[in-house]
Amino acid sequence: MEKEIVSNEDKQKKPFLFKLGIGLLILYPILWGFAAIVPFTPFPTHIKATVITVCIVVGEIFFLIGVAFVGKEIVTKYKSKLNPKNWRRKGGKQKDEK
Predict the structure, then answer these.
(1) Buried/exposed code over 11-46 (b: 16+ C-beta within 10 A; e: otherwise)
(2) pTM
(3) Sign of torsion over alpha carbons 51, 52, 55, 61
(4) pLDDT tens across 54-80, in order?
(5) 52-67 as b/e, with b when 16 or more CB fall inside 10 Å?
(6) For the chain, what is the total number of helices (H) and then of strands (E)?
(7) Is residue 55 a contact partner of residue 34, using CB atoms and an 8 Å limit?
(8) Which of 25, 34, 60, 95 makes an SS bond possible with 66, Cβ 3.0 to 4.6 Å?
(9) Is 42 helix (H, G, I), strand (E, B) or coil?
């Protein structure tokens, strides 16, 4: 009976951790984009440097935690879909399959 209780608790925790991981993976490119925009703001240089560094470091930490929560296979799957080099290849494969 204890095994059933543990498995039910694991099933309840996985969806939350999975959603949290997806959320962190979504924040990752947003932080990198923010780091790219900061140099064009009117803030002093030392503040810009600090904000850019913090964005990059926090973004990488979010990415690693998100990968840990979501799983390496899912991250690899979505990364291949977002890579522009694979966009034409997938279209070509679909035409060959038909």
Answers:
(1) eeeeeeeeeebeebbebbeebeebbeebeeeeeeee
(2) 0.65
(3) negative
(4) 999 999 999 999 989 988 888 788 777
(5) beebeeebeebbeebb
(6) 4, 0
(7) yes
(8) 25
(9) coil
